Amino acid sequence: MTVARNPALLERMPRAVAIGTFDGVHLGHRAVVRAAVEAGLTPTVVTFDPHPRQVLGGDVPMLATLERRLELLTACGIADVLVVPFTEEVASLDPVAFADQYLLAIGAQIVVAGVGFRFGRGRAGDLESLQALGLDARTVPLVEGVSSTRIRMLVDGGDVAGASRLLGRPVEVEGTVVGGDSRGTGLGFPTANLDVPAELLVPVNGIYAGAVARGPEDLPRAAVSIGVNPHYGGHERRVEAFLLDWSGDLYGERLVVELWQRLRDEQAFESEAALVAQIGRDVENTRVAARPPAT
């Protein structure tokens, strides 16, 4: 897949373009992307980074990093992606100027988007505006009950199983492995401490069963702690993953961690022995946890 941040870097050719932010590439987004893939022209996505609402004064915790979104779009069959760096200047473009600069410039002939898609200054543009410019603009129906807002609510509350049904895949957190305090190693459960991008939504504190995606390898199951480690009086929120039956040096690696099931709240214990015993139970529960079905 070719990824460009400037339309001049994509060859002008007949394209079917799916347009949107596609945060999370959930089931509704995938319906839009599928319409572009099935249209018969070069399937292309025009998306935005950062999220337009972040530039226009809103606070939007993201369901996936841009890198992860691009990986998911590739898996959907998209050939090329134009990432529009969203700025106040881009927001001020009138619909005709936007279409000319970012759609017509790459050869778009078919444009697909979800119901209610708007673009351009003051959100004045819609798919009818594109039809007036001679484009074959097609509306893709919403997938009932599926929205990024709803998924954010579920993830924020720790309902990763419910959120996964709307995503069509497990909820994920992502980050780069950095050094921690090595307390888990001392307890016999060494963890990968993730530096998670600040804009990424992380579920409510607790212990989760999941797995770590490591390229083409099998998914090593992981017991994941999200929180401040209250047993030791911690204050810094962390995401730490203990990979079951795996050893190796992960420092500096980017990890995508799937969260399959919330096991329990984080808590302080009456002794370190009680903490170790509970971690052991968390590990066993992780061994038998079922991965949410991908759809």
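[next item in queue]
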Amino acid sequence: MGILSRASYIIRSKLNSVLNRAEDPGESLDYSYEQMRDQLQQVKRGIADLTTQKKRLEMQKKRLEENVDKHNEQAREAVRQDREDLARKALEKKKSKMTQIEELESQIQDLQNTQDQLVEKKETLQQRIEEFKTKKESMKARYEAAEASARVSEAMTGAGDEMEDVGRSIERAEERTNDMEARAAAMDELHDSGAFEDVLSDKDQIDRELEQVSTDSSVNAELDTLKAEMGKGESTETETETETAEAADGGGAEDSGGSSDGGDAGDTGKAGDVNDSEVEAELEELKDEEN
């Protein structure tokens, strides 16, 4: 096999493979059915044309037969008038017309035979077309059922091209979602760390840290004040409980003097404690203000 022959063979095989993949059996069957119907229509037209020719010959034969009768009458009339010469001419024309009639009859018979054959072929072809139509519909139904079953199986198993595209779309969407989540987390981390400046604020990182320190100091001062106030309340409650207990035990003037002395000492201690707490709180506030 030469190079050109091999190339031609390869090209034909490739084209055949492509056509096989692109061919739809249902469409092919419909096309074949239409081709057979076209053939049947051509046969019908042929029969009609043949019948027309036969009718023309029959009409011509009829005219010749009328001429034969006419020439026969002419010959009789010539004999009655003792015109043998005219009778002879009429008989000669009659003989010629009869010869033409015989030829036409032969042609008409041939056309009739051909017409009978075409009619028989037409009926056979029409029967085959009906059988092919039934088989075609059956084959199309089987093919469509098989195709639907294959599509359902591909959809269930995910082996089809469309399901493959869907799987790839889901993978791409998942990748993009992961990228966006990672980017959002990175932006939050950078914002919390102060790596990005706030474009809506004229404060830098140092200003924000100083504000945070000032806020913490104010909170600590307020917390110390609350602690001091809570300490004052506890001291007052303790002294009240002590006085109530001494009064219950009794003791006259000695008890009263002892209670008075003790009360003075307690009041002095309480005042000293409160003053120290307030001074300490104010000192903390001054420190906070200086900071």
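[queue empty]
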